[in-house]
Specification:
The complex is a heterodimer.
Chain A: H1 13-40, H2 45-71, E1 73-76, E2 80-85, E3 90-96, E4 102-106, H3 109-113, E5 116-122, E6 130-136, H4 137-154
Antiparallel strand pairs in A: 1-2, 2-3, 4-5, 5-6
Chain B: E1 10-11, H1 16-21, H2 23-36, H3 46-64, E2 67-71, E3 74-79, E4 85-90, E5 94-101, H4 103-107, E6 110-117, E7 124-131, H5 132-152, E8 172-176, H6 179-189, H7 191-206, H8 208-237, E9 241-245, E10 248-253, E11 258-263, E12 268-275, E13 284-291, E14 309-316, H9 317-327, E15 354-357, E16 361-366, E17 371-377, E18 383-388, H10 390-395, E19 397-403, E20 411-417, H11 418-441
Helix pairs in contact in B: 6-7, 6-8, 7-8
Classes of the chains: A alpha+beta, B alpha+beta.
């Protein structure tokens, strides 16, 4: 019983690298700045403390980002697309192909640098929140085309 | 079906710009009155006169360049002088047709025809305004065409070989709302507004000075907004009547602005029964339906934008349920409550939560003080979501959201046992798929 498929497909490993950089670089930068400020103001221990705290927070975020990356998954079933995500709030969406109105493929500057794209599905319901981030560009294009085809074949009226 | 109409392009009623101007028209008359009665010399009034003339000319031109016609299965509207627009509305996608008559329109005996279309853009075709005696036949014709177009596409199998002649639509009145219960229900639902107003009046009797200061400091505008809000609802829901016709549910009502709407069968996305806290001792309820497309567009009142189509503003619970049965004959009869440990997560909502399903319909209830019951026909389900938050995980619970095309109905199977939620997600997915396919097979 249940809708869980045997196999989940996951976003590209590149997404994990991107997300790690997104939290790691700022945390490191803050730590370095604080350490430099502490050194120049003559060994201010509070500044060193904050620098260390920044590193610890960064490390925790890195772990969390890893868990969140692993929570992403999608599966193309016969009649619908499954998308799961979220660590704290675990979500699993079921979007029937026949209900899809249109499909978006977007890629921000950072995503583009890593050769990634986000696929987003829209239904007539505003509450439907179905997106898959961090797909390699060929996979995103393949998914878009296959979803569009399936959507057309199964389209149901409102 | 055969109301003979002249073919080719038609214009709207010549008085349309006057009515559309609404309050502006009234203002213009107020400006013109002193001139007409010669209180002022004409010389002083030339600027006003020029402005009025320009507005009148603009109105006339906009009327002149707007025309419409029925072309096969489409309604075509052309409008605009500089930026010419040609709009085509496929009648097969009509969700509902409303007849709206604001106060001024009633004075001039014209009415607006509003065709609500499907699709997420939710465009509305407006014919504002058409002469009063032409509105009813035109609406019947459009509805007949809409139904015909639908039949051609083979989408409607349910009423395919029933009567094809809606010549004189027979109505069967299902419910109507009296004035006294309506007033009582609005006041009870918005009791805090009433409380504040009564408080102000009482305060005024005790120390007029203080209250005067309060009203001066922005309180007056606030009070006025509240009164307008209550008044709007009264105006809109006054003597609202629901009737069942061959082409769908007919809604009529209104005090100053009369509206008449037809909701076609099979277009209802969700049904909602609301019982505000103070109504419950009286056993009253309100029944609302959600129809695809944007509900309230500009010009329909800000306060109404987020609201659903009200079928009955106030009625006894038994009458409400009777109407629900009519809309959804196969609604789930038994609702099951959540496991007792949900009390620790939602102590206020716990007693109100429940859900149930039949082969074609899912029902959920929720609400802390205000009880809300939602019904969603499974063939209208857009997507399903299984969500588990941190507290729910600790308690072994999960929620399932049923997404519909409307924006205001949130049918949620809240806080169910994890195993039950998983099973429900699978069942609902399968049933929704079967429900979607059924009309195509029949």
């Amino acid at each position: 019983m249940g809708v869980e498929p045997e196999e989940w497909r996951t976003p590209s490993r590149q997404l994990l690298t991107l997300r790690r950089l997104e939290v790691g670089v700022p945390a490191l930068a803050v730590a370095v700045l604080l350490a430099v400020a502490g050194a120049t103001s003559g060994g201010n221990s509070a500044a060193y403390g904050f620098a260390a705290a920044s590193l610890v927070v960064g490390a925790l975020l890195l772990r969390f980002v890893g868990r969140r990356y692993r929570s992403w998954g999608y599966a193309e079933r016969e009649d619908d697309l499954l998308i799961r995500r979220g660590v704290m709030f675990a979500r699993l969406s079921v979007v029937p192909y026949g209900r899809m109105q249109f499909i978006d493929v977007t890629a921000g500057p950072l995503e583009r640098a890593f050769g990634l794209a986000t696929v987003r599905l829209h239904t007539a319901a505003a509450a439907t929140d179905a997106r898959i981030p961090g797909l390699e560009r060929e996979e995103a294009a393949r998914l878009r085309d296959s979803l569009a085809e399936l959507g057309e074949a199964q389209a149901a009226g409102l | 079906m055969s109301t003979p109409r002249p073919e080719g392009w038609q214009r709207l009623h010549p008085l349309s710009p006057v009515v559309r101007g609404g309050r502006a028209t009234i203002a213009i008359f107020i400006v013109l009155i002193p001139i007409a009665f010669g209180r002022d010399t004409l010389g002083n009034e030339i600027p006003q006169f020029v402005v009025v003339a320009v507005i009148a000319l603009a109105g006339f031109v906009s009327w002149l360049v707007t025309r419409w016609r029925i072309e096969g299965d489409d309604l075509r509207v052309e409008t605009g002088l500089l930026r010419r627009q040609s709009l085509r509305f496929p009648l097969a996608q009509v969700q509902a047709i409303d007849v709206v008559r604001p106060g001024l329109a009633r004075m001039f005996r014209v009415a607006e025809l509003r065709l609500r279309m499907a699709g997420s853009s939710g465009a509305t075709a407006r014919l504002a305004y058409v002469a009063e005696h032409e509105v009813e036949p035109l609406r019947d014709q459009l509805l007949a065409l809409a139904r015909g177009a639908r039949l051609d596409e083979g989408l409607a199998a349910t009423d395919s070989d029933s009567e094809p002649e809606p010549a004189q639509p027979e109505e069967h009145v299902l419910a109507t709302v009296g004035t006294a219960p309506l007033v009582a229900s609005i006041l009870l639902e918005n009791w805090w507004i009433v409380a504040v107003l009564v408080g102000l009046l009482a305060g005024f009797a005790v120390s007029p000075h203080r209250v005067g200061d309060l009203l001066g400091g922005g309180g007056f505008i606030w009070a006025l907004t509240m009164v307008t809000f209550v008044w709007r609802r009264f105006n809109q829901q006054y003597r609202l009547t629901v009737a069942e016709g061959p082409d769908g549910l007919h809604l009529r009502g209104g005090l100053i602005a009369l509206t008449a709407e037809v909701i076609r069968p099979g277009r209802v996305q969700a049904v909602r029964l609301v019982e505000p806290a103070l109504w419950r001792p009286l056993g009253w309820c309100r029944l609302e339906v959600d129809v695809a497309g944007k509900q309230r567009r500009k010009g329909e009142g800000e306060a109404q934008r987020g609201q659903l189509h009200v079928l009955i503003p106030v009625a006894g619970r038994s009458i409400g349920m009777e109407l629900v049965d009519r809309l959804l004959p196969d609604r789930p009869r038994e609702l099951s409550p959540p496991p007792p440990r949900v009390f620790w997560k939602s102590p206020f909502r716990y007693r109100a939560l429940s859900w149930g399903r039949s082969e074609t319909c899912v029902a959920t209830t929720t609400g802390r003080l205000r009880r809300v019951t939602n019904w969603v026909p499974l063939e209208k389900v857009q997507s399903l979501r299984h969500v588990q938050g941190p507290v729910q995980r600790r308690l072994g619970l999960a929620s399932i959201h049923v997404d519909t095309a409307g924006r205001t109905v949130h049918a949620t199977l809240r806080d169910r046992d994890t195993a039950e939620a998983t099973r429900a997600l699978a069942d609902l997915t399968d049933l929704a798929r079967a429900a979607r396919r059924r009309p195509a097979l029949a």
